[in-house]
């Protein structure tokens, strides 16, 4: 074999070896570093389920309508952190316990009962469902997982009285009253005292309907008061029937719990309204933050819970100014509605001169002040 042939063979072997090595190198795969699994996103907290029990229909234009507006404020404030629901027209009877117990069974962890008559049923359910928080409106009994809240509606009643005392031509006012409990009696008295503060000649007649919401009965009661000489009416009932009756019969009246202007624009002198939103937002916020605790709350003008709105154009300017002064004094704590001397309808002193009623006194008012006619149902 010639040298050239040998060299060719050697060259070919060398090239083959290089090519083989290259192929081996190309065929080897380097393992890519393993990517770490992404950290699991924290589980989104389940929304707080909240239920409201209403004594009347949400469309009553008054008490229940005001509570439902407060519920909507909660939804607006907390968005998807909460889920709210309600049951309307829950009677103050054994059926209330069934409804409230069902609310707890459905997973609601915060339950609001919005009328005085739910107090005992809520206490029973609270004792059996310690993991649920209960809020009772206008009551006075609490438990470790149940607290009470209320609004100082007597402040709105007093301001209505000031207006009524100036606007009456007969010096006879009328009140359509619901249930004979301190809350309602206190409002009748405060309305009368407000009127007497600007017109000492005023007297107040009362017709009790013994229900919170019964438009036909409220209409009948309002008509009776007007026929008896009352030309300005207030009510402590939940519908707009009293204002509508005054409109129909050419008299004046007030909205109660909510702004009722639209129900009787000619009769309307102003509306004593309740804003439940601030309290409901506070209570829900505490529950979400784990800061909720039992206790009692009673909010009024000072906390933005009570107001007199849409005062009629024909109310004298000096009276409107007085209403503004009362609001400012209540907010600052410099004005007290229940300040002595105050006497009952029999002339007996119930609050001494310059004495200011505390909440315990106010919570037990079951007498009429001087100027209110008639008797309290079930009273002495």
Describe it.
The protein is an alpha/beta fold. It folds into two domains: 48-152 and 277-302, 3-Layer(aba) Sandwich (Rossmann fold); 153-273 and 306-362, Response regulator (Rossmann fold), CATH 3.40.50.2300. 38% of the residues lie in helices and 18% in strands. The chain has eleven helices and 14 strands. The chain has a six-stranded parallel beta sheet with strand order 2-1-3-4-5-11, with helices on both faces. Helix 2 (63-78) crosses helix 9. The chain is globular, with a radius of gyration of 35 Å. Residues 1-31 have low confidence and may be disordered.
Q: Uncertain spans, ≥5 residues at pLDDT below 50? A: 1-31
Q: Could you give a short account of the major beta sheet? A: 6 strands, parallel
**Tally of separate helices:** 11
**Mean pLDDT score:** 91
Q: Specify the helix fraction band.
A: 25-40%
For this structure, the CATH topology of the largest domain is Rossmann fold
Under CATH at level 1, the class of the largest domain stands as Alpha Beta
Integer count of domains: 2
User: What is the terminal separation in angstroms?
Assistant: 143 Å
CATH superfamily of the largest domain: Response regulator
Strand content: 15-25%
Total strands: 14
Give, in spatial order, the strands making up the sheet with the most strands. 2-1-3-4-5-11
> Structural class per helix/strand content?
alpha/beta
Order of helices and strands: HEHEHEHEEHEHEHEHEEHEEHEEH
Question: What is the CATH architecture annotation of the largest domain?
Answer: 3-Layer(aba) Sandwich
Question: Mind telling me the C-alpha Rg?
Answer: 35 Å
What's the overall geometry? globular
